[in-house]
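User: I'm curious whether this sequence folds into something compact or stays loose and floppy. Could you predict its structure so I can see for myself?
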Amino acid sequence: MCSSIYIKIALFLTSIILLFYCSPSSKAPLKIGLMVTLTGKYPELGREIRDGAFLAIDEINKNGGIRGRKLQLLIKDNRGDREVAKSNYLEFINEDVIAVIGPATSSTARAILPLIDTHRLLTISPTVSATEFSFRDDYFISLEPNNRQYGESLGKYVREKLKPKRIIIIADEINPVYTMDFAGSFIKNLDKNTFIKTISFREGITDFDFLIRNALKHEPDLILLVTDAFNSAIITQKIKNLNPQVKIAISPWGKSHAFIYNTGYISEGVFSVGFYDESYKEEKFLNFKDKFIKTFGYSPESYAINGYNAVMLIKEAILKDADRNTIREKILNASFNGLLGEIKINKYGDTETKPFVVIVRNGIFEKLER
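Assistant: Here's the prediction. I'll summarize afterward.
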């Protein structure tokens, strides 16, 4: 099964390369950089962003490109290493890309932000949501709601509907710019009388069994997991084996099919917060989803959706005669039609999308009506 998926992906990528190099057009291609984690720690985000972006590139090129010019995606794997990410970004500056898509994590974004400010090469992240990147007059755009919005939505739901007396937050140390920010935003929206304790861990170092026993000894009503999908799945299983009654929430970082696949029926009732409702039925999205599954062999998450949207946002700007020096101005204070509806970008480059609470029902994350 896995090998067939990889073969399909390889053939798809080869077709894009052939399409580009065999094109009779004499016009130089429009280059877009893509810089995400594809190997190393937590590569899932980067791979989905890449696949979503590829699908958009393929669609545009098969329809003649943009005003007769093909798009070319230059891909760099930062391997989850901040110094490699800096080198990748500097390479893009010399490779004449019109914009960069990425990075995938907030910690990597913090590392390259000084370079973005210095060189003013527009950088669009499909997934970064740490609040520190919002409300800045810079060249960094995020297509994800920020953690202040996420924390408010999840925190209000927990406070008003669940009313827990004791909460444990288990946070991943590998991406503290994101995890501590999300946890803090969540806490700000809870009842002040709620007992809250945050426990951090690091994959490969922390003993998960000890971690969970330590969490459960506080007799929590709710445990919030702020980590990726695979760690969230492992921890959820261990918690439920010891205490099936405790409620579990996961951060948007862990909200994916991989979490459900690796927890099975245990995932039912786990809730999170996001901007993507898997029961969404609009034709444009369903066509994208069908094509994505046929091409890559798996169902797209919000990461792939925003990888696709990032390319389409760049396309819309180019259609407004944007070049490398003016593309930022063509995007700020503008809107375009994304896969899930209209996307508005404010004057700071922040996406004005309102998140909502979702819950696992029958093996998918569905919007929870409040």
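Summary: The chain has twelve helices and 14 strands. Confidence is low (pLDDT under 50) at residues 20-25.
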